[in-house]
Amino acid sequence: MKSKILFGFVSMVGLMLGAQSALAASAPVREMAGIMDHMEHYASDAEKMKLKGIIDGKGSSAHERVLATAISNFKHHPADGDTGKLKQLMNDTSAPAEDRDLAGIILNMNHMPNAMDKEKLEKMMK
Fold it and tell me: Quick one: pLDDT band at residue 7, thresholds 50, 70, 90?
C-alpha cells in the first residue's frame, strides 16, 4: 500500500516537472523576447548577429526561423515580406503559444512594443 502511494506521489511530481518545462519558452524564443523587449525601431547589429545564429541554428524550429527573420528585417514596422508568414504562424494552432504570441507582437509593433506586449515579452524571457 505504501509503495502505491509513494509511486503515485513520485509520478505526480514527475508530471508536474514535465509540464513546467513544456510551458517554458524555448531558448531562441527567450532570446528573441529579450531583443524585442527593449527594441526601438530596429535591432542592433549585435542583435542581428544573435538572430542570424537562430536562423542558421540546426536546433532552431521553422517557426523560430520565421520569427528571427522577421525581427532581423524589422525597421519601424514588420517588413512586407514577413507579414504573411507571421500571420500564418500566429494562426497555426500546432505552434507553441509563445511562438504565436511573438508573431502577434511583431505584427502589432510600430517602432517599439506597447505596454501590454512588453508584459508578454517579460513573461517569455523567464
Answer: very low
